[in-house]
């Protein structure tokens, strides 16, 4: 008998940042900062005048080696907490021939192959573009870009190293003409949300609302830029 053909679908590629590497890095950095604080405090108390002289004298009043051990331990503990937050905020990607799943903050977005016309890198962000040139996903990404590009290409997705539509973006200012009804108000709200550190999820939701209106948004520093892949009112 001849060999039975392999009809099994190619295995999906799963990419995720290493949780223990992120956490260890943050712990080491925190411990290092704790140690540097003791050196800084010792230097400040020797100056004729210095800012934070009171807290510095309070720190240096703790006898060694207790001061250094305590500062390093507190720094490491803070680093551990930051590491847990960083792991929670990190992006993972599950890529197969039929679909892509992006997971961040314990929430997943799933896209079929037909929904994705192009995948590209925009600075530190991973972007998925639909057939109508609307962005269907834009996420901060710490994954290795070469591995991402190879994984998407392996499973039949088009990849670009930069945004092919970047030249179409215009800077947003309040009252900008050419936007569909309601978009200017959403951009105002999003600008306010981006200025508040605890409103990141609100800014993400407002981006999705703008996408429903046919407006693509990208951020650069504290400025918002926009483009219109379609005319207002067109279906997408």
Topology:
Layout lengths: L12 E4 L2 H26 L8 H8 L5 H24 L2 E4 L3 E6 L2 E6 L5 E5 L2 E5 L5 E6 L4 H10 L4 E2 L9 E2 L11 H12 L5 H13 L3 E5 L2 E5 L9
Parallel strand pairs: 5-8
Antiparallel strand pairs: 1-2, 2-3, 3-4, 5-6, 6-7, 9-11, 10-11
Helix pairs in contact: 1-2, 1-3, 5-6
Keywords: Coiled coil, Membrane, Transmembrane, Transmembrane helix
InterPro entries: CysS_C, PH_YqeB
Structure, explained:
This protein is an alpha+beta fold and 236 residues long. It has 3 domains: 17-89; 92-163, Signal recognition particle alu RNA binding heterodimer, srp9/1 (2-Layer Sandwich), CATH 3.30.720; 165-231, no CATH class. Helices cover 39% and strands 21% of the residues. The chain contains 6 helices and 11 strands. The strands form 3 sheets. The chain has a 4-stranded antiparallel sheet, with helices on one face. Strands 7-6-5-8 form a 4-stranded mixed sheet, covered by helices on one side. The radius of gyration is 24 Å and the shape is globular.
